[in-house]
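Minimal example, chain plus adenosine-5'-diphosphate.
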Amino acid sequence: MGLDLNYINGQPPIDEDEKEGLLIETIATNSELNEFEQLNIEEALQWVFGRKFKAQEVFRDQFIRDLHKQMFGDVWAWAGKFRKTNKNIGIENYQIPVALKVLCDDALFWMNDDTYPPEEIAIRFKHRIVSIHCFPNGNGRHSRLMGDIIIEKIYGHEPFSWGAGNIVEAGKTRADYLAALRAADQGDYTPLLAFSRS
Ligand SMILES: Nc1ncnc2c1ncn2[C@@H]1O[C@H](COP(=O)(O)OP(=O)(O)O)[C@@H](O)[C@H]1O
Ligand SMILES: [Mg+2]
């Protein structure tokens, strides 16, 4: 297949085994892939925003996998299944289930304890989950939707604007986003908090 998915623009490559999971045979370029994924994500948004969610449901690996499947299941056979390969972002693949459980438990604790304001709980969760990198692809988009679900469905606040530009393609919005993620990697969440509402 002619897809050249090298590590550019903060995106790890999709390896050959994973490419075999592509369900739409006509996809030949990255931009076609993005378009099909985007159509699928729009269906997932309908599913999400027509529903109510409780924190105990959202902060569970079942929900996290279901959401990824809703977003990418028309395009990728492995949607909703944890990564079996290692990437240049994310932890060792065998550690994913435990790390995700710890993150979910931490998030429930932050909520019950009011450890951080709601925005910061959503943003810390978003950054921790994309840093675990549960899936072969789509982790960035999935982590942002998780952040939106936390802030909107659990706390009843406005969804995030995430820079209000094109965050998927290369450009200023994407560059600002990646810089904010790198600051969060160092423990400074201020840029990502600001970006999420810009
Ligand atoms: N330094 C970083 N720290 C945390 N997350 C990062 C970093 N660099 C990139 N990312 C996130 O990882 C994503 C790439 O993973 P990928 O699974 O390809 O998701 P997507 O296809 O939705 O972009 C980026 O879009 C970004 O959200
Ligand atoms: Mg990607």
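The pocket of adenosine-5'-diphosphate (ligand 1) is lined by residues 10-12, 89, 130-131, 137-141, 178, 181-182, 185 (CB under 6 Å). The chain has one domain: 16-196.
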